[in-house]
Input
Amino acid sequence: MSLFISKKDEFGARPKGRPHTDLLAEEVIRRKLLIDGDGMGDDRRLNMLLKVFLKWCTSNDDTEEEQAIIYERMVMTLEQCEFAISKSQQVLCMNQAEMKNYKQLYSEIEIGIANAQKKIVANKQELQKAKSIRKNKQEYDALAKVIGTQPDRRGSLSQLEALEREIRALDRARQALDSRLEQRRRQFHVLLSSVCELQQLLKDEENVESQGMDTT
Output
């Protein structure tokens, strides 16, 4: 706004000499270069402002009232350009912040995927162990049946009881492993669902941001 104030004194007559005209024109051009048009007519607005300003500086036919009106229009146009600069800077800061958030989320997702892969490997190992225990239990059951067909002897009964205790212990261990495996499977399912939802959320935010930038 101070760009044009020195040109006239309360919209009075213009000074005969114009020693600052070139400086003012350079200032207008500098402001034009600083404003990066975002496709909404800022460049055209600056061109019109420069033409009106140069015409205003060189014209002697306009009345004082007309000069005041033209001056107010130039001030309004300049304020619009300054507002466009501020808006562009705010959008740039917002985009930088969003990029930082996206990078952080991407890093967190990568860490989550790596942890999920480790859990998958651990669950596979536990599953293999559970299968081995189940196979041993079947073998122990078959052996117990064979022992049960033998004559009733104290030693055989003692061994059978020991085997049954071992089988029960193995069965409890198998049940515990099955429970842990089911729990890990549910946790992994929840983790994968969270990762998919997070990826969809990021994609939706990018689409919304793209649509918002297109509409602006």
